[in-house]
Amino acid sequence: MKRKYIISIIAIAICLCVGVGYAIIQSSHKVITIGVFAGSNWDVPTADSYQIVQNVIERYEKEHPNVRVKFMSGIRKSDYSEWLAGETLNGDAPDIFFVLSDDFTTFHQVGLLENLDSYIANDNNFDTEAYYPSSYATGMDNNHMYALPYESVPNLVFVNKSLLEKEGISLPNNNWTWNDFYEICKKVSKDTDNDGKIDQFGVYGYTWEDAMFANGIALFDEKEDVNDFNNTNAIESIRFLRQLNELNDNVHVTSQMFDEGNVAFCIMPFSEYRTYKPYPWKVKKYSNFEWDCVMLPSGPNGDNISKVDTLLIGMNAQSKHKDEAWELLKLLSYDQQTQLEIFKHSQGVSVLREITKSEEAIDIISSDTPGDSLFQMYLLNEVMENGKTQYRFKKFESVTSLIDNEIYRIINSESDIKTEMVSLQNKIETSLKE
Amino acid sequence: MKNNTNKLNQRLDLAYLVLCCINFIIISFISGVMYICIQRMIDNHSSLYFLEKLSTLPPSPPYQIIVFSIISFGILLCLLQIKKIQELTRFMNVFIYITVISLSMIIMYYTSFANNSILLLVMTNFFVYARFNEKRYLYLFITVIIYMLCNFNLLSFIPMVSFNDYTSFFGSDTQNILNVIMNSLNTISIVLFLLIMVMMILKEVNESRRVLQLNSELQLLNKQLQEYASIQEKMGETKERNRLAREIHDTLGHTLTGLSMGIDASMMLLDDNPEASKKQLERLSKTARQGLTDVRRSVNKLRPDALERHTLKEAIEQMIADFQLLSDIEIRFACHMPTLAFEPDEEDTIYRIIQESITNSVRHGNATKIFVSIALDNNNIILLIEDNGIGSKKIQYGFGLHHMKERIDLLNGTMRVYGLDGFVVVAEIPLRKENMND
To answer: Among A97, A112, A313, B396, which residue has the fewest nearby CB atoms (within 10 Å)?
Structure first.
C-alpha cells in the first residue's frame, strides 16, 4: 500500500515536472506564423513582394527577443486563398495572415478571424481615427472588427491625353460631373476611318458600382444587405449608364481598345497607375499615347467618389499567442514606418491618413512618375477620404454577378428602367433568401 | 427453464458486444470519411470552395477528430464495462452515467452528430445491466430524451459542419453510397438495440413464468401435505380407537364377564351355601379390584405421548419449544417449584390445560407473547397462562374451555378466565392427600 502511494506520488511529480518544463520551453520560444503571398495584391508585376514583411519581422524580433516569426514563402496570390483554406481545415492556419477582400466574408463566416474589439479597446496606443474610414470598414462586420486594413487601392479615371488633345478637348479637372463626362464621351465617340462603324469610344470599365457610388448610393449595407434598387438615384445611375452605352452604337468596348489608344477614359485602380506609369512598364503597355488620371466624375446627387479596395490582415481565432500576434498585426497595419514602406515597395496606398498625406509619401510617388502628371498626389488623401468600400456578404459574388447580367441587359435594351429595377430588386431579394 | 435464461443471457452479451463493434465501426467510418474528404479537398485545391459553403469550422483538424473520438470511445467502453461487471454505489453509478453521456456528446460533436447510435449503446448498458435496485427506467428515459435531441436535423440551429457537407465533395454518386453505408450501419445498430430489448423482455417473461410455476408447484405440495396430515390424523384416530377397544375388550370385558358370571354363581349359592357365596364374593371383590387396576393401567396407556416418555416439566418445555419452532410466538415458561411430580391424571390435566390455552391464545387471540407459570400455594397448584392477544370482552365457553373446566372439576379444582387485557386463564387444583404425604 505504502509502495503504491510512493509510486503514484513519483508519477505525479514527473508529470508535473514535464508539464511545467514544457510550458517554460513553450513560453520562452514562441513561434508566430504569418500567412503571406508572393506578388502584388493588385495583380501587377512586382519585384520584391516579401520586402515589407521581412523588414517588419526583423523589427518585431528585435523588440520581442523570445518570439520567432515564420512565414512560408512561394505561395502565389492565385493559390493563396486555397492554401489558407487548406491550412485552416488541417488546423495549421497561421497566427496572422493577409486576407484578400474577396475572402474576408468566407473566413469571417466560419469563425477563423478573431474578434479584435477587445484588443482595440484595451490598447491605449491604438486609435481607429488614424485610418481612412473606408479602409477601416472593410474588416468590419456588424460593428465588430475582424481584420485590420493593410493597404488600399482606390479607383481612378485614366485619361488618354493624346486622344483628348487630338479632339481639342482639355483634360477634365478633379471636380467634374456626369455632364462633363458625358459631353466628352459624346464628342470623342465617332467613326474615324469612315467604315460605318464607330471606332473611337468614350469610356471603358465604368460599372454600375462606380455610377451608383457617384450618385450617392451604397448598394449593400450591413443591416439590410441590399438597399433600394428602384429609388430615383439608382434609376438615374442606370439611365446614365444606358446613355453612355448608347454612344457606343452596340460596339463592345474592350480593354485592348484602350491600350491601343482608341478610348478616352478607363476606370482603373491606383495600383495600375503606380505600376504602369514608371519605366519600363510604361513602354511595354501604353507606349503609343500620353495619359494621366483624374478623380471619378460625380453624379447629380453624389460626389467624386471612388471605390476603394483594401487588403486586410487578420488574426487566427485559434492562435495560441494572441497577444504577440496582436503586436505583430499592429506593426503591419498601424506602424508608420511599415505603412510608409507600402509606397516604396508596393503599389497601394497607406491606410493611415498621416502617411498618405505626408511629404515623404508624396515624394516617393512623385519620384516614380517622371514627366508632367496633372494628378496632384495630395489629392490621393481626398480620394481616400471620400472613397467607399463595397460591403461584402456571403452571397456577394452570386448577387453581384446577377446584377451585372441584369444591368448589362437593361442598358442594352429599350425597356422602362423603373419597371426593370423593381423586378431586379425582387430577383435580388429572392436570391438572398435562397 | 433456468438453462433457457442462461442461453438468453449469453445471447444478450453477444448482442451487446456486436453493438459495441458497430459503434466502433460507425465512429471510425465517420471520422475516416471526414479525414479522407479533407485530404482530398486539399489535394484537389477545393478547400476554399468547401469553406465558402460552411458557416463554421470543423471542431478539429481531421486527424485529431479520428484520434480524439476513438480515444473517447475507448474510455467510454471501459466505463461501461466497469458498470457491467461491478456492483457500484448509487453515487458511482450517477458519476459513470454523467461521464459516459458527456463522452458520447464529445464523440458525437467530433463526428458532427452524424450518428447518435452511441447513445443506444449507453441505453442498452444502463438498462440491461442494471442491478435490481437501480432506477433503470429513469436512466432509459433521460437517455431517450438526449437521443432524440442529439439529432443533426434537430440541432441545425447550432452552426455545424454536417457529414453531408463533407461527403458532397465526392459528387452525388459517391455521396449516395456513403449515405447508404451510414444509414445501414445506423439501421443495424437500431435493430440490434430492439433485439436486445426483445431479449430483455423474453428474459423477464421467462423469469416470471418460472416463478409462477414454482409457486404452483409449492401450492400443490402444500395441498398434498395437508391431505397427508389429515390422513395421518384419521389413521391415528382409528389406531387409537382400536387400541381403546382392544383395551376395553381385553381388560374390562374380561373382568366384567368374570364378575357377572361370579355374581350369578354366588346368587345361586347364597341360599344353599352362604359361606361359599361369601367366599365367592370375596374372590369377586378381588377380581373387581384387579379389574380396576387394569382399567387404571389402560387409562395410563392413553396418556399423551410426551408425558409417557418425559417428566411433566420436560414435556411442557418440549411442547413450548415445538410451538415456538412452528411460529414466531414468544412463549415464556416459569416454574416456581423445584420438581413437578404429580399423579398421572393431575399431570395430564395440567399438560392439557397449558396446551389448550396456548392453542386458544394463538388461534383466537392472535397473541405474540404468552406467559406460562406454575406455582404451589397452600397445597393448591396454581396454573397461570396469560397472553398479549386481543382477549375477549364477553367470554363464551366453547368446547375447549368446557373440556378444561370438566377436567379441573374432576380434580375438585376451580378455573377462572379473564379476557379484558389479553386472555388470562387461572386454574387452581388441590393436591390429593397421598401427595401431601410425600
So the answer is: B396
